[in-house]
Amino acid sequence: MLHDPNRIYIFDTTLRDGEQVPGCQLSTVEKIEIGKALENLGVDVIEAGFPISSPGDFQSVVELSKAVREPVICALTRANKGDIDCAAEALKFAKRPRIHTGIGASDNHIKYKFNSTREAILQRAVEAVKYAKSFVEDIEFYAEDAGRADNEFLAKMVEAVIAAGATVVNIPDTNGYCLPEQYGEKIRFLKENVKNIDQAIISVHCHNDLGLATANSIAGIQNGARQVECTINGIGERAGNTALEEIVMILKTHHSLNFTHKVNSKHLYELSGMVSRMMRMPVQPNKAIVGKNAFAHSSGIHQDGVLKHRETYEIINPEDVGIDQSEIILTARSGRHALNHHLERLGYTIERIDLDQVYERFLTLADGKKEIKDDDILFLMGHETENNYKNGLAIKGLKVVCGDQVSPTATIILNYKGKDNEATATGNGPVDATIKAIEKIIGKSFNIKEFNIHAIHSGSDDVSKVDMRVTDEGKSYVGYGFSTDIVRASANAYLDALNKFV
Ligand SMILES: CC(=O)SCCNC(=O)CCNC(=O)[C@H](O)C(C)(C)COP(=O)(O)OP(=O)(O)OC[C@H]1O[C@@H](n2cnc3c(N)ncnc32)[C@H](O)[C@@H]1OP(=O)(O)O
Ligand SMILES: CC(C)C(=O)C(=O)O
After folding, report:
1. Buried-most residue among 25, 195, 364, 487 (CB within 10 A)?
2. Residue ranges of region Regulatory domain (predicted)?
3. Mean pLDDT by 10 residues, the chain (502 residues)
């Protein structure tokens, strides 16, 4: 790798640290699909797996090495010969292979995990790097739990592994312990105190136990690190890793930081969805950059601001991450500007609408529903046109009795030819009884050829939409009806069609 002073190398570990998430294990085929998408995204390094861990993971590294040629393909090992032999074997088809070896650097790890001493661990670190170097040129060394390690010892270890041949030195905050300032200082300390530091790239690998992974990674690069280890959607062991999409968009949004990289941010959203689907790991709706709500505005003041000027409440252009446009979601917290926006979008002529009246009805409906969708608006606007039927058919009242102990019966009051008429009828269900009651009043029956009831979204509180095709004497019309009551929606659809027969 060339040492361009402002170049940030993006090291993706979705297929290794990301895959450590319980339930997120991938097949070789899935790993290759994600690997190719990461290559297309423009990442510099793909950590493909931990070959010694299982035959399946070994095979995945082999196949990924064959299929993905542009990025460096990296395999993880512990600091021992067996792991390194296995990684070297798995990487033998890689165009740009890297072995990522390392050992614990904190006193906690040295004492409790290894029952060892700083000196002995330092020696194992150096031996592992030298051994890995006998297979491939590109060696990354990780000083596990560097976040909690003593800086003086860490500097000694880093200097020794670079002297042994490490090309990249990874300073992981394995337990997500550090504050951004502390982590930044640690990287600066290494920059200033390791004599041969310029012979290697410093890498940051931060975990999110305190929600600081991305902040710490940024602090790391501001203090001299040039590789960021991250995962799509921030997945990874425990609370996860630094999210790749966050790093890329921070660097883009704060271009004054003056860092460059070669990731094409326009693929971020698509890749987030792909990883989420394949790992069956939903993305939290409020996840920065790629969450369902990251570009959705649902409160009136924000919606008004965004509609007047997108940047009032958006620091990222959604197109930059591959999302067509931000969303204005109608809820009971929305105002008239947002409602107006959707009415216009649906083709209503605003000048002909009493917006205050529609808004009042909108609030009544929105208080009972979590979200108002297009079909709900059509339903609301149906009231506006109810009295304008050509034939003047309009429901004034409807009562339906149904259940398994009674014969379904409907009583309807229908305005027909300028006066209200009442009729009662039975049928083989509540909708059939209602249609028959309508037909009693108009003295004629029509043929219903198609009849569809759509559950529009979800939940028993939803507005349902009915469409039906009604024929008579060679003529055929389609009627639409909307209501939270499916019998009423069916009656509305029937009358909508009948009103079209002149
Ligand atoms: C910080 C990280 O995230 S590293 C990546 C974590 N990922 C994984 O652990 C997934 C892959 N791991 C595995 O499949 C298995 O743990 C294996 C194959 C690596 C090892 O399995 P086992 O041999 O059964 O050992 P086990 O996992 O129970 O214990 C780990 C052993 O590795 C040692 N070890 C841990 N880290 C290192 C290291 N960096 N270098 C050398 N030895 C290490 C431990 O001290 C312990 O050794 P011991 O048996 O002498 O006490
Ligand atoms: C293997 C290393 C880089 C790691 O995953 C960690 O320390 O969190």
Report:
1. 487
2. 394-502
3. 81 97 95 98 98 98 98 98 98 98 98 98 98 98 98 98 98 98 98 98 98 98 98 98 98 96 98 97 97 97 98 97 96 97 83 90 89 82 50 86 93 91 96 96 91 73 80 82 88 86 68
β-bridge pairing 464-472 and 447-455: antiparallel
Which stretch of DSSP H or E encloses residue 315? none
CB atoms within 10 A of CB 9: 21
| Separation of alpha carbons 50 and 33, rounded Å | 18
Q: Say if CB 104 and CB 119 are below 8 A apart.
A: no
Instruction: State the residue for tokens 């909708």.
Output: 431
Residue with CA closest to ligand 1 atom 35? 78
- Residues at CB less than 6 angstroms from ligand 1: 20, 50, 52-53, 78-80, 102-103, 113-114, 144, 174, 237
CA 435 to ligand 1 centroid distance, Å:
72
Domains defined for the chain, CATH in brackets: 9-279 (3.20.20.70), 296-385 (no CATH), 389-498 (3.30.160.270)
186: CB partners within 8 A, 6+ apart: 146, 147, 151, 154, 171, 178
The crossing angle, in degrees rounded to 10, of helices 374-385 and 336-345 is: 90
Q: List, chain by chain if needed, residues with CB within 6 Å of any ligand 2 atom.
A: 17, 76, 142, 144, 170, 172, 174, 205, 207
